[in-house]
Amino acid sequence: MPLWNPRSGAFDGAQLRGAIVMRGWTIAEFAALSKISLACLYRALGGYRVTDRTAIRIFEGLRQGHPLPLPELPNAR
C-alpha cells in the first residue's frame, strides 16, 4: 500500500509513523512542525481519511526533514 491513497484520502499509518520516526521526530513534534493538530495526525496514523489540506501539510512536514542514517550493527555470528 502506498503511503497515502488519494482515492480514499487515507494514509498507511505504519508507513507514516515510520517516516516521522526515521526523521528523528516524536509524533507531537511533527504535529507542531506540520501545523496540524495532534488529533488530525492521530487520525492519519490510524488509517482514517484526512482532508487534502491535512495531507498536504503532512507531506510538507516530511519534506522538511531527512531520514536519519541507520546505525551500523555488529555482525552477529
- Beta fraction of the residues? 5-15%
Helical content band: 40-55%
Q: What's the structural domain tally?
A: 1
Envelope shape: globular
Name the poorly predicted regions: none
On the 0-100 scale, what is the average pLDDT?
92
Q: What is the fourth-level CATH superfamily?
A: lambda repressor-like DNA-binding domains
CATH class: Mainly Alpha
Distance between the termini: 34 Å
Give the spatial strand order of the biggest sheet.
1-2
Tell me which CATH architecture applies here. Orthogonal Bundle
Biggest beta sheet summary: 2 strands, antiparallel
CATH topology: 434 Repressor (Amino-terminal Domain)
Counted beta strands:
2
Whole-number radius of gyration? 14 Å
Q: Please trace the helix and strand order, writing H or E for each element.
A: EEHHHH
Tags for this model:
77 residues; mainly alpha; 434 Repressor (Amino-terminal Domain); two-stranded antiparallel sheet; 4 helices; globular
What is the fold's blueprint, element by element?
Blueprint: E1 4-5, E2 10-11, H1 13-21, H2 27-34, H3 38-45, H4 52-63
Antiparallel strand pairs: 1-2
Structure, described:
This protein is mainly alpha-helical and 77 residues long. It has a single domain, classed as 434 Repressor (Amino-terminal Domain). The chain is built from four helices and two strands; from the N terminus they run E-E-H-H-H-H. The protein has a two-stranded antiparallel ribbon.
